[in-house]
Structure formats: structure tokens, C-alpha cells
Amino acid sequence: xxxxxxxxxxxxxxxxxxxxxxxxxxxxxxxxxxxxxxxxxxxxxxxxxxxxxxxxxxxxxxxxxxxxxxxxxxxxxxxxxxxxxxxxxxxxxxxxxxxxxxxxxxxxxxxxxxxxxxxxxxxxxxxxxxxxxxxxxxxxxxxxxxxxxxxxxxxxxxxxxxxxxxxxxxxxxxxxxxxxxxxxxxxxxxxxxxxxxxxxxxxxxxxxxxxxxxxxxxxxxxxxxxxxxxxxxxxxxxxxxxxxxxxxxxxxxxxxxxxxxxxxxxxxxxxxxxxxxxxxxxxxxxxxxxxxxxxxxxxxxxxxxxxxxxxxxxxxxxxxxxxxxxxxxxxxxxxxxxxxxxxxxxxxxxxxxxxxxxxxxxxxxxxxxxxxxxxxxxxxxxxxxxxxxxxxxxxxxxxxxxxxxxxxxxxxxxxxxxxxxxxxxxxxxxxxxxxxxxxxxxxxxxxxxxxxxxxxxxxxxxxxxxxxxxxxxxxxxxxxxxxxxxxx
Length: 488
Prior knowledge:
By secondary structure, this protein is α+β, with helices and mostly antiparallel strands. Among the domains are: 137 residues, Domain of unknown function DUF1254 (Immunoglobulin-like), CATH 2.60.40; 184 residues, Domain of unknown function DUF1214, C-terminal domain (Jelly Rolls, Sandwich), CATH 2.60.120.600.
């Protein structure tokens, strides 16, 4: 028995030796980051330093997608002030329409005029909007493009109030509390003719401090002249991007959902209450992260997948996607806040409202984007393309197709000075069955000039189809959309 016990213990000892046998020194692990080196189970100093840098690069990259919609507005506001030659303590509306008038704004369209205002409530104090009766529809957004008040044709007074600002107890109207100081408020006066034109400038806006004797509201037509410097609201691709992120952090209250993002920013030199003085190494990381982050933002915006955006692809294989990415403009839902949708839409477009994602047939609007041709290749300005639009597009009011440049997401600039065609286009050529063929390319097909939008060699582009008053055939996706085909 004693001998058997000794044999058993000896075998157990051998097994224990096998179990705790040391891992080979200088082990190399293959990962998506490359080869990582270990000494036994410990990461080498060189590998640890490499990983520390990768952590910062990854965080800088994801901070780009996080900041995308806010960056949109924080770039738009100084652009609007510069273009209209106004100061940040003034309250004014910018009247933007036509080919040159809407150009500075991402994915604007030229078929419906815009009336746009932005205010930094920390400079102006609370702002009063006095809405007249009539068909005025629009929205008030905070700095993250979230709607905080829909303007839906009802008359009345709104008081736009920034974080921590006092509200008068005797104000006779609706208090609209913003969680950011920067707000955008814009509207469209629906209809046509003299009535719509008069309604467009019937809204009154002024500082609460001037409420006892309101000044006449400023409506400034944006009409850039040849040689004028035009500032764009496209997100910058240099250190100005991070300088604007820092400007936001310093000015605005931190949202609870952003606490971890602020920790990442701190590691990169952006911290509330402190000057932004990045080291040379931090600058390099920030710029490399910006390059990758902008590419990722374009990827999720222009190459939506059903995995990331379950409801965004139109039909089975139409080549068109919901430009809103299936986004709920509220962003903050019960169980999570939308991240992919917010980054996707913020990369390519400006402002959101409930009307832009209407699910009621005949109401609001719908936006479908196409970024590649039928062969899966980029839409390149040096090629010629055709889009066949089937008869009776599901739009109760009208439809339009607009071409934008990829680099800036602005209406395409060309010799013809037109970027869109629509069901309202005078002389639009229709086929015998009511369908329409639209053409994109550097030269117009003979006899089809009215259906053509000029593109530029060396400049890739994308296309929006807008449906104003989308009908049931859009919502159930029974209206067939065709891919954009390259003409060979």
C-alpha cells in the first residue's frame, strides 16, 4: 500500500510539473495590430509602449465619429457669421436659396428656400421667436443636431433658453430649454407665390433683453459675389477640427453620456478649464486619428450595412440607402443613445427634425442616397451615368434629385450652375410611360440637356433623391429604385 501511495504521489508530481511548465521566452502573438512580444506571460516594454500609442490612436479615431454632428454645427456657426458679415451677439435670419445661396451648407437643396438662424445663447442671452399663423415648418436643434422643438405651423411665442439661464416667470409662451448654448433654428414657408414670400419673413426673433421694445428682425439674403470668401460648414481636416472640439468642451456643459469620451479627450490634451496646448506627439496622434476617423465616418455614411443599419438599405439591392441611416432624431433612446446613426448622418448632412423621418404617408420628406454605380464603383465625375426613375415616384408634393461632391458634401459646382433636376423642372423630358431618365457626366447627351447635371473630371460625387410627402409605396418599398448605370 505504501509503495502504491508513493507511486501515485510521484505521478501527481510529474503532472504538476507539466501543468506549470514555463511558456517559451520571447513569445510572439499575432493580432490585428501586428505581432505582440511577450517574455513568458509579460508584455515586453517595447510592445507596451506600442500599445499605449495604439490606444490613443484608436481613441482619437473614435472621437472623430463621436464629435461628427456637433462638429457640423460648430463649423457652421462661424461660417454663417463670416458669410453674412454678422457678429455673435446679433440675432438674424439668413435667407438662403438658389445655386449660390445654399452652397456653403452640406447636402442643401436648391428646390426649397431656407430661412436659417443660429445663436450662441451665452452671448445673446435667451432668444424669443414669435411665430405667426401660417404654414411655417421647421425645427430648433441643439449643438448635437437633436431637435428640441418642432416648428409645425402653429402660431405662438417660443423662448430659447441656454443651460443655467434664468427664465422670467411672466413669459407668455413656451419655454424651450436647450442643453447647449449653441442652437440652430430654421424653417420653410410652404406654398408658393406672394403669400409664401411674405410668410417667409413674418417670423420675429430678438433677444429677451430687448422684449419690451423689440427691434425689427434682420433677414439677410445670402448672395455671395464673385471674389467673396465663402466659408463652408464641412468639418475641417486639420488641427482646426480639434480646436473646435476644444471650443465645444470649454463652452458647453458635459452631457452625462459623454463622460468616458471626455476622459479620452483629457489624455489627448483637451480638458475643460485648461488651455489646449497639445504636445508634438499629441498633435501627431490627433491628426492621424482624424485621417482615420474621417475615412471611417465616410465608410459608415456611404457604405451602410444591414448589420449596422438594419432599416437603412432601400429594397433588396437598389443601390439606394436612407440618408438618415434609420435615425431617430431624438438620439437618446430608452436603452441606448444612437451612435452609428448620428455619426453617419452628421458626416454628410446638416440638421434633423421629426418631419425628416416621417412615417405618415403624404407628410414630411424622405431622403435616399446613392454613392456607387451599378458595378459597385465610385461615381466619378469624368464618366457618364444614367438614372432611370420609374413612373409615379411616391411623392405627394414633388421629387428632386441633387448631385453633391464627395469631398465637401456640397452641391456640385459646374459651368451650368445647376445641381438638381426635379418633377418641377420646366421642360423635363419624360418617357412615354411617364418614367424619367436623368443623366450625370461632363457632357450632356444630345437632346437630353434638360435632364442632365454636369459633373467634373477628377471629382467623385453622390446623389440624393428627395421625396416631399412620401407615400405608402416608399414606406413599404414597393416603388422600384434602379441603380445608377455607367454609360459605356
